[in-house]
Amino acid sequence: MELREELPADRRAVRDVHMRAFGDHGLVVADLVDTLRTTVTPGDGLSLVAEEDGRIAGHVMFTRSLLDAPRRLVEVQVLSPLAVLPAFQRRGVGTALVRRGVAALAERGVPLVFLEGDPGYYARHGFVPGGGLGFRKPSLRIPDGAFQVLALPDHQPWMTGTLVYSEPFWRHDAVGLRETDTE
After folding, report:
1. In a 3-state reduction of DSSP, which class is residue 4?
2. 54-103 pLDDT, tens per residue?
3. Whose C-alpha in 33, 122, 137, 176 is 20 to 30 A from the C-alpha of 143?
4. Residue 44 per-residue DSSP state
C-alpha cells in the first residue's frame, strides 16, 4: 500500500470512496470533501490517499480551523473525513492514513488536531474526549464522547477554548448529528 498526497487525477476515485464508505451520508461527505479541497494549500491542511494495486482504497483530509483560546485565536487542524472502501476496511488502511497525517502535521508545528468520531477507534491513535481537557465543542449536536482532540508537541497549556469549524462544515451541515424526522 502506498500513502501519498492526493493528486487532481484522484478526485473522482476519492469521491467514490466517500460515497461508498458513508452510505446514506455519502453525498454530503463527498460534497464536503470537494469544498474542503479548495482550502488545502501547501503547508496548510493535508489530503492523503492510500493506493493499493493502482486503486484508491482510502482517503483522509485535515483542514484548518480555529481554536478560540483566551489569549488569542490558534490555528488548529480538523481530521475530517476519513473513509476507506468497504473491501479494504479492517486492514489498517485508515490507521496508516491517520498516523501519516498526524506525523506530517506535528512536523509542521500544528498544536492540536480535532475530530468528531468513534472514541473506540480514534483512542487507538491517541485522541481523547476534548471536554475533559478544557475544550468546548462547536455545536451541541456533537455527542460529548465523539468530540475528540490530539495534542501535538507544539501544544501549550494555555491553548484551551472553543473549536470554531471552518465555514464549509456549516455550509454542508456536516457538524454533529441531526435528529431524524420520524413523522
Report:
1. strand
2. 999 999 999 999 999 999 999 999 999 999 999 999 999 999 999 999 99
3. 33
4. B
CB 50 within 8 A of CB 142: no
List the beta strands (DSSP E) in 85-178.
112-116, 128-129, 135-136, 147-151, 161-164
Q: Which three three-digit cell numbers place residue 39?
A: 482550502
Q: Cis peptide leading into 168, omega within 30 of 0? A: no
CB 149 within 8 A of CB 113: yes
Query: What is the bridge-based pairing of β-strands 147-151 and 135-136?
Result: unpaired
CA dihedral for 142, 86, 50, 30, sign (positive or negative): negative
Q: Single out the residue of 87, 85, 113 nearest to residue 98, CA to CA.
A: 113
Residue 87's identity, in one-letter code, is A
Q: What is the identity of the amino acid at 105?
A: L
CB atoms within 10 A of CB 38: 8
Question: Is 104 within 8 Å of 5 (Cβ atoms)?
Answer: no
